[in-house]
Write a structure and sequence with these properties.
- With 186 residues, this protein is an alpha+beta fold.
- 31% of the residues lie in helices and 29% in strands.
- The chain has an 8-stranded mixed β-sheet.
Length: 186
């Protein structure tokens, strides 16, 4: 039996693509309104094939609060694109595209999604959760360091500059994150 205010994190399916894009685009508009240009390209249809492919690879997750979508993230076991060779060292899980609905802001949902990702890392006996964000997004960089992430460097491409973060995830985290109701298979 589900209790009120139950956070469920489940794999996104192809019929969830519009929901995932709506969450990403809502956060993008909010960031732009604050002068943060991290995901501007998500407002175009150019990102549709990217998220459709990620959903097809079973790496996109939806967070639902009482059955209503309130967040999304991408979670994968390697990331050569952002982390180069270290992204295939078998030591980490990699999180991208963390987005929470503005109506759920200020209630710790982002931290809960990060806790969920850390629990996945623990379950797979890997020591680190790694993520990145736009290097110029000072507020988000402070958020991640405030949650114990350590900056590991900058990744620069001709069109993107990312700040890389890593957090050591102790085995004790496995027990600390059992409050999530997980529906990984539909």
């Amino acid at each position: 039996m589900k209790h009120p205010n139950t956070l469920t994190i489940r794999r996104a399916w192809s019929d969830d693509l519009d929901t995932v894009l709506a969450l990403i685009r809502e956060v993008t508009r909010w960031m732009i309104s604050r002068g943060i240009h991290q995901w501007d390209n998500s407002l175009t249809d150019a990102v549709v094939p990217y998220f459709a492919r990620k959903i097809g690879q079973d790496t996109v997750y939806l967070a639902e609060l009482d059955g209503q979508p309130v967040g999304t993230l991408t979670f994968q076991w390697s990331d050569r694109t952002t982390w180069d060779d270290i992204g295939e060292d078998g030591q980490a899980g990699y999180m991208h595209s963390l987005a929470t609905a503005r109506r759920a802001a200020g209630h710790g949902l982002g931290a809960s999604l990060l806790e969920w990702a850390m629990a996945q890392v623990c379950r797979h006996d890997r020591p680190y959760l790694r993520l990145d964000c736009a290097a110029e997004n000072a507020g988000l960089c402070r958020y991640y360091t405030g949650l114990g992430f350590i900056e590991k460097g900058i990744k620069e491409t001709p069109s993107w500059r990312s700040r890389l973060f890593e957090k050591s995830v102790g085995r004790e985290a496995r027990d600390d994150h059992t409050h999530f109701e997980q529906a990984l298979d539909k």
